[in-house]
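User: quick one
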Amino acid sequence: MNQSVDFIIGAISFILTIMVFSYLLGDNFFFRLASYLLVGVASGYTAALLIRKVIEPYLITPIIQGGYEQWLLVIFPLLMCLLLIAMFFPRFSRLGSLPLAFLAGIVAALTIVGVSFGTLVPQLGTLVESFNPDGLIVGANPNYLKIADAVIMVIGVVTSLFYFHFGLSRKKTNPEMRPKLIEAMAKIGQVFIGITLGALFAGVYSAALLALISRITMSRDFIMMLFGS
Amino acid sequence: MSDDVLICPHCGEENLASATRCLHCGLPLEEAFAIDGLKDISSSLTGDFVKAEEESLPDLFRDLHEEADLQKKAAKIEALSSIESTTNKAEEDASEELEAEDTIPEWLKKIRQRAQVEDDSSGDLIKKVNARDEIPQPSEQSQVDNEFEDWLRQIRLNARRDSIQPLVEEPTIPGLDEETPSWLQKLREIKETENEPEPELKPQTEETLPEWVEEEQEHLASSDSSLSKGHPEHTQPLQLAPEVTQMPGESIGLGETGAEKIEIGKDQTKEGEALEKIIGQVGFPTGTEGKAFLEAFEQERPETADLLLLRSQRDRAKDLKDMVENEGKAGVLPKQQKAPRNKFFQLVLYLLVLSVIALPLFSGAIDTKINGTMQPVSLAFFDSVSQLTAQESVLIVIDYQPGSSAEMAAIFQPVLDHLTRQAVKKSFITTYPEGVWLTSQLIGQEESLTETGTTYLPGAKIGLMNLSLDTSAALSPGLVSSDLFGSQYDLDYDSIILLTDSFNGGKNWLELVGPFISADKSLLMVASTQEAAMFLPYFDSAQLDGLLAGLNESALYNNALGKSSSISINRSYQAGLLIMAACFVIGIITSIGVKERPESQEDVP
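Assistant: Done. Structure below.
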């Protein structure tokens, strides 16, 4: 029984993989069919999951089985949901602004707090710590590797910040240019940003390559299973 | 010398054969005037040479010549008698006019006096002739002058008649006047005199149609049934009026009276009826026959200037109508034509790359240990997992997309084996809806795994903050937190292992959950290769206790566990990286060539 199920699932996966690979010949019906299947199945799966994992346990069950405390906790989100649903009707669409404003405000506050206390402060602390003499000097000899690492880190941080300085010069001679010092620093920062974006692109290619390898491996396994080897 | 033209001996210009004075210089043409009997012009013209020649002629020719002279003399006598009669008649007319002047009313006399003072409308030619009349004539040429006066009178009469009925000359189109049908000429007349009281237009019936129109009708009548069946639009009546006639706002006359006018563009039905009426008046076939006839006419004949004019007006009206209708609507940009690609070579290239990547996979599974040592971040990860003891709880966060599941599962597989070996208690949570399915797929790979439940944490950042504040309430739907606003925030797990393929997803955990993890608990991360570099600074800042990223580090992790790994995937991966490097080099060379082309093209004039 399990083998037959695996065979069916493997066959469907193999056929869908071939349909997606058919895009090598250009846009065609089979590729579009596979795309539509992906979107449709993902949407249906998400809707079913949200109903079962969110709406039912967080909303319906507390209303049906919960007590007074749960009612109090549920009534506010329920009201917000109803206001969001009102956005479907043009006459009451303005009512939906209230829950949207509530959500946007909370997310913005969480983002600012998270970036400040989760990224900026710790990273600046790390940058300062990199110049701690205890780490740069090992015994009586300086650790040149750590010093170079710290210097490059400082240059990279400072010049990358200068790259995002968009102020213009106040001099009348060349008003459309940034000040020369900032322009020079921005040029150096551009190098660091270019390296970072290049690393990200290489990572994207790497992920896509691994996904391709995964599909080829799956196809190989199915073909071997098909021929019984 | 030609019989129709006289050459002026003074200025050399041509004159009419009956002219007595040159129309160009005004001098008399008596030397060339050929009325015999009034003066022996021939003798002056021929001279002694002619007389000598006549004397040398034979008798037969001389008799014939004399006979001809007699006939000429008789003709001269008749001419003189007719001139005398006309002169007498003119004198009688003058006397009658003098008698009639006594009976003319005063208003008519004033008009005549004024007409003598003011210029008439006879034109420059007549004025010149009148000016020549003022030149004193020799008395011996009175008869010739009388004849000349009669000739001038006739010219004046013609000029006055022409001034009463001005003739507007058609702009001639070479090669078309003879072929222009009568209905088209009438259309031209309507167009030119549409603002004036129009003379009557004779309705042209089928009997008076030109022959070529009848032939066309007969020819089209035979094919009319097939046209109407094959093309439904041909069955519609001919509607030239709204489009073909004129621009909106202009008006057209309705033929006979010209008093009835219709504003174009306001009532298209009336416009159509008006044009149908005009077309019917000129005898042009209407309805299906007319449309079919027009199509056949356009195909078989070159377009005349009139049809081109109507077509340009129709096109302009149509453009204006489209502009008004499309006002305020979003426009659709025309599609740019893509350069044709050679799909065959493109397909061959794709298949070549695919085969290079797939070849190591089909060469057979090679299980071996990879040489090398783990990076410090990976080593820290291994140490953190090794420190977990039995019955300690680990929260495994599945935060990656299905597209990265193959890579993430391959990287996490040795960690899962390690956790199982440590006999820690595993719990799974996900913030992606797809994570529920991915977790079940991941758990199914480990046969000894007993955990089956996966919690979906909704709300993204808000859900993470809720998890940090009260883990039990966040992971237990319907459970009210007992310490919602308490000061003790701590996770109920000894360690958190985050599997992510997204920098933003991992950063949210580090920013919103990480600060609430106490120092004795660890936050570990399994990341995809593409995002590994972005998480390294968090390891330097001690926000991460360990990071495992990439297939190579995963294989080294397996080595540390004393297991061997299949390197076929690694070889395929390396082949893909080599192809990427080659493409980068080719792309750089190609881009250099592209940059130089515009500069070289600018030099070309």
